[in-house]
Design a protein that fits this description.
The chain is of the alpha/beta class and 243 residues long. It has helices at residues 55-66, 92-97, 105-119, 131-142, 182-195, 225-242, and strands at residues 21-25, 28-33, 41-46, 70-74, 123-129, 146-152, 169-174, 200-205. The protein is 32% helix and 20% strand. The chain has an eight-stranded mixed sheet, with helices on both faces. It starts with 20 loop residues before the first strand and ends with a helix. One of its GO terms (molecular function) is hydrolase activity. This is Carboxymethylenebutenolidase homolog. It holds the Pfam family DLH.
């Protein structure tokens, strides 16, 4: 029996009125939010298992746009069903087989092309959460067009090639994430010291569980709020440093 890795309640969400709009890019739908001024900087947000329509992820898109980036969250599930909080955890491994976070290269290329050709983006960063964090780790090993990445509680696990990052990458973890052990985090740190040739950072936030950083303000517990806000600031600072 697999424990539910999402310890926050995904069913009980306050309504969120989005600031951006939906677009069609080739075969992908995407949610886009632009800042109030024109810019040649962009950020791709990679959603978690709950998909591109989940209110928390749209909140993050709007947040990044508010910091001056054309921000886009494409549907990396390509129109297939996202995971739902009512689904059974016994089915999760099968669902994951059909939603592989290491198979996002084609979609990333479609979105990069759109950002460059339609939005005039010259520098592009990427941030991803959970499933999306794994996708970010993967893309930062494969796609040199991404100037910087932030992976929030998602890592590529079973490859010796996973340490040769192409551009600056920041890994954010919760101390009490039971999907990623502290041992795995220490191993990642150790190997990056040996193999990584670009700036990287690893940070563990005390007492935080998997999924902690994408909660909207009204859904935060008071004791978690400082860590959630710090993680978001750290994420934005990393992108601002390199993008």
């Amino acid at each position: 029996q697999m424990a539910d890795p999402f310890l926050y309640n995904t069913g009980d969400r306050s309504h969120y009125g989005c600031l951006g709009h939906e677009v069609q890019i080739e075969y992908l739908k995407a949610y886009v939010c632009r800042p109030s001024f024109s810019t040649d900087k962009a950020v791709i947000v990679v959603h978690d298992v709950f998909g591109w329509r989940f209110p928390d992820i749209r909140y993050i898109v709007d947040l990044m746009a508010g910091h001056g980036y054309v921000t886009i969250c494409p549907d990396f599930f390509k129109g297939t069903e996202p995971w739902k909080s009512t689904d059974h955890w016994a089915d999760f491994p099968d669902w994951m087989k059909n939603h592989d976070p290491m198979k996002v290269d084609k979609e990333a290329d479609v979105v990069l092309k759109y950002l460059k050709e339609q939005c005039g983006a010259k520098k592009i960063g990427i941030v991803g959460f959970s499933w999306g964090g794994m996708a970010v780790h993967h893309l930062m090993l494969k796609n040199p067009q991404l100037a910087a990445g932030v992976s929030l509680y998602g890592i590529v696990r079973d490859s010796e090639e996973r340490y040769s990052l192409l551009n600056p990458t920041f890994f954010i973890f919760g101390e009490k994430d039971h999907t990623i052990s502290l041992d795995q985090i220490f191993l990642l740190e150790d190997k990056l010291k040996q193999y990584c040739k670009v700036p990287y950072k690893i940070k563990v936030y005390p007492g935080q569980v998997h999924g902690f950083a994408q909660l909207k303000p009204e859904d935060m517990k008071p004791e978690d709020k400082p860590y959630i806000e710090e993680a978001r600031r750290d994420m934005i600072d990393w992108i601002k440093m390199f993008v």
